[in-house]
Write a structure and sequence with these properties.
Elements lengths: L2 H9 L1 E4 L1 H15 L22 E2 L2 E2 L12 E8 L13 H13 L3 E10 L1 E3 L3 H13 L4 E9 L1 H7 L3 E4 L6 E3 L4 E2 L5 H6 L17 H7 L4 H22 L15 E3 H6 L5 E2 L2 H21 L2
Parallel strand pairs: 4-5, 5-7, 7-8, 7-9, 8-12
Antiparallel strand pairs: 1-6, 1-10, 2-3, 9-11
């Protein structure tokens, strides 16, 4: 695990399901207590089971390149697991995945994109690279279809930016968790036992710097909610309402963090349909064709 990933875990603001957050706690604890060896210098490589899949309607592209695909192909690009902005030796970050989306958007052989999502969310700063890449694809007249097993919290924020959300199945697919949380670990007591002493000195003109954070360290959470979490949560809600016109906002919990199984998500407007990868690719090509016709008519 690279230091910047650990830093994100320790200090970041998150939009993530509690199940996913708790699943990481044991790993983090083992790292902090030195029960897991961290070697930041040993060269390695990403798993051969790459979460980014580049393919067309006729199977994988030659040498995994978009420009080797047949004309009017659909690019299938995936992200799975907890979202972080920058990748490390173990996983791709959303910045790298966004680069792949942009590459597909710029390729004349690609007419549309299917974004496969299976994620409980992640760091808030991991959202923008993907939503910007989706917007870029749409500006290039290439529709983006989200095909999701789980799209929760930050992952749902991303899915909502797509032109259509399709559930991968009606058994395990879940959607929602529209909300924001933050977590941090106060490691000072552990380090103080080892002899470290902490000093923070602020300018006389910087009396408000880090005030919300220090209040949270004292167990006073109102300020950090008011200044950080609530604005993000409102942005999340506004984003979903803007992109999901059929959302039934009166459904209890739908904009305050509740998760919905596939059929309930469909009936409440969180998603648009249920299907599989073939259905998603067919819909993507159909939408691309409609978009092309509309462009010709408007010329």
């Amino acid at each position: 695990m690279f230091p910047h990933t650990l830093s994100q875990i320790m200090r970041g603001v998150w939009a993530i399901r509690p199940e996913d957050a708790l699943a990481q706690k044991g790993i983090i604890l083992n790292i902090l207590t030195s029960k897991v060896k961290n070697d930041y210098t040993t060269p390695s490589k990403l798993s051969d089971d790459c979460p980014i899949i580049r393919c067309s309607d006729n199977g994988e592209c030659e040498e995994n390149r978009f420009d080797s695909a047949p004309k009017n192909s659909v690019a299938v690009i995936s992200f799975y697991g907890t979202m972080v902005k920058y990748g490390d030796l173990c996983t791709y970050g959303t910045a790298e995945i966004a680069d792949v989306i942009n590459e597909a958007s710029d390729c004349d052989q690609i007419c549309a994109i299917v974004l496969r999502i299976d994620s409980g969310g992640g760091a808030v700063n991991s959202i923008a690279p993907l939503t910007c890449a989706i917007n870029y694809a749409q500006s290039k007249n290439k529709p983006v279809i989200a095909l999701c097993d789980v799209a929760a919290s930050a992952a749902y924020w991303v899915a909502a930016a797509c032109d259509h959300i399709m559930a991968e199945n009606n058994i395990s697919s879940e959607f929602g968790s529209i909300g924001v949380m933050c977590s941090f670990v106060d490691v000072r007591p552990v380090l103080e036992k080892q002899g470290y002493k902490f000093h923070e000195i602020y300018s006389d003109m910087s009396q408000d710097k880090n005030a919300a954070f220090h209040a949270a360290l004292r167990g006073e959470y109102d300020k950090i909610k008011e200044e950080d979490l609530n604005p993000l949560a409102l942005s999340f809600r506004d984003h979903v309402i803007k992109h999901r016109p059929n959302l039934i906002e009166s459904t209890p919990g739908i904009l305050s963090g509740k998760m919905f199984w596939c059929n309930d998500a469909l009936s409440n407007g969180l998603i648009d349909s249920i299907g599989n990868i073939d259905d998603a690719c067919a819909l993507a090509k159909k939408r691309a064709g409609i978009m092309a016709v509309n462009n010709l008519l408007n010329q």
